[in-house]
Each structure stands twice: as C-alpha cells, then as structure tokens.
Amino acid sequence: EHVQGIATEGGGLTSHAAVFARSMGIPTIANVAGLLEGVAEGDFVILDATEGVIRINPGELVRQQFVRAGETTAEPFHGDEPPEWTERESATRDGERILLRAACGNLPEVEQATALGMEGVGLYRTELLYLVDNVQPSREALVRHYRTVVETSRGPVTLRLLNVDSSLQVPYLHFEREANPHLGRAGVRSLLAHEPLLRRQLQAILIASLGSEVGIALPMINDCGELRKVKEILFEERIELRKSGVEFQERVELGCVVETPAAVFGIRDLARESDFLVVNLDSLLQYLLAADRESAELSHWFASLHPVAVRAIQNLCEVCREARRPLSFFGVTATVRTNLPLLLGSGVREFCVPPGELRVLLAAISEVDLASANRAARVAARSSCQAETSSLLEGFRHGYVRP
C-alpha cells in the first residue's frame, strides 16, 4: 500500500522502491508532475497509495507508522483463502467466547483485519493524517480516509478522535512542548481548546459513516462534563450539515476511552451517559502507578498486573455489566499472555488487537481455563503487592492456584 525509498539525483526513487512501484502500476516520483522541484537527492520519500499522496521527509513518527504497516501487512497467507488458523473460534478452553476486534492506525492494517475475518475495527487511531503535514487535513481528505476505513472493515468501526500531546509538535495544536506533555493538553482537552478542529473531525466522521455502524471514542476523558460538551458540539454539527444539505449518518454512538484514575473513579457516571467504554490499559496503568511505561528502569511495574489494577478492572467490568454498556480493552499490556488469566477472570470479554497479533492471542485465549482464571483474579485482587500477583501467575502457568 506504500513505497518508501531515498530520492536519487535524477529525481526518482532508489531502484528497489521504483521497481516495486512500477510492478504495482504506481507512478514513481519522476512521473508525477511538479514533484521534481520539491525533492532533492537523499530525501526520504513515501508514496502512499492508500491516500494517493507522496510524502517527502516525513517526521520520525510518521515513518514508524508506515514501517509498522509494512511489517504487519505482509501477506499472511497465499491465495484467496485465509489460513486455517483463522477458522479457530475465539474462545477459552472451556468454551467462553471472547470477542476480538481490530486495533488499527492505518488503512493497510484495516485491510489485513478484514482479510483475517476480524469482526470490525474496535479502535481506529486517527492521528496519522494530522502528523504528515504542518497544516491540518481538510474535511474532504478526512472524509475520504474515514469512508475507506468504514467500507474496508468487515464490521462496525470505532474511530478514536485525535489524541496528540505537545511532544509530537503539531504546530497548529501546540506552540511549544509542555514541561510534562502526558499530563498536559492532550486528548479531549486539546480538542476542546481547538473547537474548529474538533468540529471538522466530527463533521467528517458523520459524513463518512453514512449508512454504516460507526462509533466515536473520546480520548483522555476525566468526567461527564467533557463528554457533555462534545455531545453539544456534535449536536450543533448535525444541524450545520442539515442546513448545508450534506447527507450524513444521523446516529453514531459516542463512547469514552478510560485511561485516567478520574475516569475509573467516575465510571458509573460515564457508563450512564456514554454508549460504550474502551480501556487503554497501557495508559491507565501508567497513571495509576505514576510510572513512565517508556522507562526501562520502571518496566518491572508493567511486567504483570498490579493488584490495584486488578481491582480497578473488576470494578469496570461490574459497572459496565450492570449498565449494559459494551466494554473493550486495548494496549500492549492487555494482550500479554501472562495477563490474560487475570483480565478474563476479572470479566473482560472483548479486546481490540492489532491484526498482526491475532494468531498469538487466539492461541493464548484457547489455553485459559475460565474457572481457574476466575480464582486467580479473585486472589490477585486481594494481594497486597505486585510480588504476590507475580507468584500467583507463576502458579497459574503450572496448573495450580491458591484457593
């Protein structure tokens, strides 16, 4: 879906990238009018066929996104039929069905999820289009992108609204890097501080989701005040679209991404006023434990679920079950094999997983006995420290759990 390479003196791509582009019927740099003046020898070039654009010297984060897409969208099977392992039912060893939807950040990942038969996109990160240029994308560009995502997906799609902090240096969102970006103007805080941007994204989603089942997830929500404000803006944008005569989806579900302690403590209020909830387990653990998950020295805090985290997860599952609200989990920590017994035993029944990790997670879930997992979660929640939880998980792996 994309070609990357280094620009050569003649204005083309390096030979391996250019040959591949020609074999796919994609024009190379030298064949695109007006671009020879904009590219110099040694420039890093990405030809993004999914968006129909060429990106010159994109930022490191954008490069990583495309590299990741290339790694995860390598052909998972040969021919038109998916591999046999995709036919395995997503269920525990004792037959409890677990819903696995895709977590994606670009179109190639959505295509792979569909090819593997995944039941929709449980979380689509919408940041990429905002990171490739110094100006925000137009409504038309957003509509094209979201519409392709929705049409490509095999089932419902949940689009998470733009979630960037000042460390990403998006010029029209942040003038400078904050002292502590993770605790600064990010997620819904940033969106509400830049209402025109939020309104444009909401309009694009409403237009692109016409006739489809789409949800909107609000990142970094703390309380119902933020949720209500977005609801008001969404209502106003529906009115504007009606006035302009543009067709759009009248009904879209609005949910919250649970990732702050405030959202955990206020979960009953959020569950009452939102349509669904999605837990970003990586961020939630980071904020609960006040530990930077990017720090190698603090990585042991994330090796297994802390007892406090287990208690929080159990409460989230209980509240959402009582309120009859869908609850899903995503993040690296949510798909770690050693954490699965505690998550499933706490009541988690839905995950959002990158398509490239589907096979491993299916196998891991099939090995979990739910009765033992329930006991493990109960004991873990009563533990007084992480070391006790780690011992418990070691026992679970060896087939026994303390009563």
Descriptive account of the structure:
With 403 residues, the chain is α/β, with parallel strands linked by helices. 42% of the residues lie in helices and 13% in strands. It is built from 16 helices and 11 strands. It has helices at residues 15-23, 60-72, 107-115, 128-131, 139-152, 188-193, 195-208, 224-244, 261-265, 267-273, 281-289, 307-323, 340-346, 358-366, 370-382, 386-397; strands at 2-6, 44-48, 53-56, 99-104, 121-125, 157-160, 214-218, 253-258, 276-280, 327-330, 350-353. The strands form 2 sheets. An 8-stranded parallel beta barrel has the order 4-5-6-7-8-9-10-11, surrounded by 5 helices. Strands 1-2-3 form a 3-stranded antiparallel beta sheet. α13 links the parallel β10 (327-330) and β11. It is globular. The termini are far apart. The model is unreliable at 6-31 and 72-76 (pLDDT under 50).
**Residue-averaged pLDDT, rounded?**
84
User: What ranges have pLDDT less than 50 throughout 5 or more consecutive residues?
Assistant: 6-31, 72-76
In whole angstroms, the N-to-C terminal distance is 52 Å
Measured by DSSP, the beta-strand proportion falls in 5-15%
Strand order of the largest sheet: 4-5-6-7-8-9-10-11
By DSSP (H or I, 4+ residues per run), the number of helices equals 16
Note the main sheet.
8 strands, parallel, barrel
Provide the structure class: alpha/beta
Amount of helix: 40-55%
Based on DSSP secondary structure assignment, what is the total number of beta strands?
Answer: 11
Overall geometry: globular
